[in-house]
Amino acid sequence: MRRLWRSVLDVLPLYDPGPPLESLAAELGRADVVRLSANENPLGPSPRAVAAVAREAARIHLYPDGGSTALREALAHHLGVRADQFVVGNGADELIALVASAAFEPGDEVIVPEPSFEPYAIGATLAGARVVSSPLAAYDTDLADIRRRLTDRTKAVMLCSPHNPATTIIRRSALLGFLDALGTDPPLVVLDEAYHDFCDDAEYPDGIALLARYPRLIVLRTFSKIAGLAGLRVGYAVANAETIDRLNRVRAPYNVNRLGQVAALAALEDKEHEERTRRLVLEERAFLSAELARRGYRFPRSHANFLLVAVPDAPARRARLLKAGILVRDGASVGFPGHLRFSVGLHETNAQLVSLL
Question: What pLDDT digit, counting tens, does each position of 64-74 carry?
Fold first, then answer.
């Protein structure tokens, strides 16, 4: 019989984003369901971004700017690097896939912390590379273990800081020591900083500031979290111009839609909304952490807009929360059985969550 599909699909795990919020609300028979399972912005998007989308809506019959030129130029001004050092993608997920398409070949090895964000391994597997898992040390990325797993076939190392789902970070001295130890002919190092806006640790490094020193570093960031544009899917990679050229060669020409581009531009200009979001997350994260610790729960210190908490009988407690209209993530689905992962929400929701737990 003719084989139609690639054999790799038989072993590829499916990424489960969970049910749509609307269908879940209908199933539960309540309109007040709050989703704390997807690390979304509790304040929503900037009003400026909403207004920009409304203005642009009449032009959706026109193709978008294929290179996201205005957004790249704004990012360059904002972050102090050249516009040709950016590629904008349909969320960070597409950027991970672009790296895999541009760089990974059969026989390559890609080192991925385990557990971590699922698309790292999915992209490498689809490209025909071999995923080399590096187990976390409790909740921390084990850079020493990653170094031991490096070979001549290592094409890339995937790092996530703050880590999803563990909430931990790679501190500056550890990251610099690791990058220096890779030598003069290192593999690509992809540093996913999707949650960097919520980290207030003085030892947290700015990956973009390291690009001049480490030319094979690729930094990923997103407008989904701090800017609240998860529904429009806008992320960006920052690297040297040669790397960006390689990624652009495998990028679809109109990969980021018009509404996403104008919303991201408007969000970038609204520093007040960004600061409101950051302040809320830091304050409510501290509230949740204190209340959970007071009740005896164990969890790593969070540097993101969510917590990963060890919970007895996690599936049953998740079901109890869901019945009350609060959707959280079962840690087993992200590599941490016996845990729940939940986003930082508004204070009333956070207080209810703690009470129900």
Answer: 999 999 999 99
